[in-house]
Amino acid sequence: MQDVKDGKSLKPHIDAMERQLNEVFDAVDKTNKHFWPSMPRAEEVVNQSPGYFSRGDISEVAVILGSNYTAWRDTPGAVNWVKKKLKGRKSQKNANAKRMNLILGFGWWWYASDTGLASDQ
């Protein structure tokens, strides 16, 4: 807080923390792809908690969220941050899918016109 009192910007510190949070998000996502999508509906997932779990599986998520979801829920903005990250990721996936459809469509058009399949007969 002394930096703020001295008129210094906290932006470099905030940027560094955002980078660290993004690294954690990505690392968790690589470890278990079910974890982040389960966070917004954690109470539902926790109620399905099994007696055992497999690493990387939804059952692992149920066990982990069962032991620490209250910390996420009680931290202001934490669950909303996850929701924003998921929404951004969904938007990126949709954009990538559209791009791939365009590429595949153009590839088919090029192949068909090159081989004569697209000619009017």
Give the secondary structure arrangement, pairings included:
Elements: H1 2-5, H2 11-31, H3 35-38, H4 42-46, H5 58-74, H6 78-115
Element-by-element helix/strand order: HHHHHH
* Helix coverage percent: over 70%
Number of domains: 1
Number of strands: 0
Question: How many strands, what sense, and barrel or not for the largest sheet?
Answer: none
Q: Tally the helices.
A: 6
Structural class: mainly alpha
Strand content: under 5%
Mean pLDDT: 78
> What's the N-to-C terminus distance?
76 Å
| Dominant shape | elongated
- Cα Rg: 23 Å
Q: Uncertain regions: pLDDT < 50 for 5+ in a row?
A: none
For the structure shown, list the relevant keywords.
single chain, mainly alpha, 0% strand, 121 residues, 6 helices
Description of the molecule:
- This protein has 121 residues and is mainly alpha-helical.
- It has one domain (2-115).
- The protein has six helices and no strands.
- The model has no long low-confidence stretch (mean pLDDT 78).
Give a short overview.
The protein has 121 residues and is mainly α. Helix content is 74%, strand content 0%.
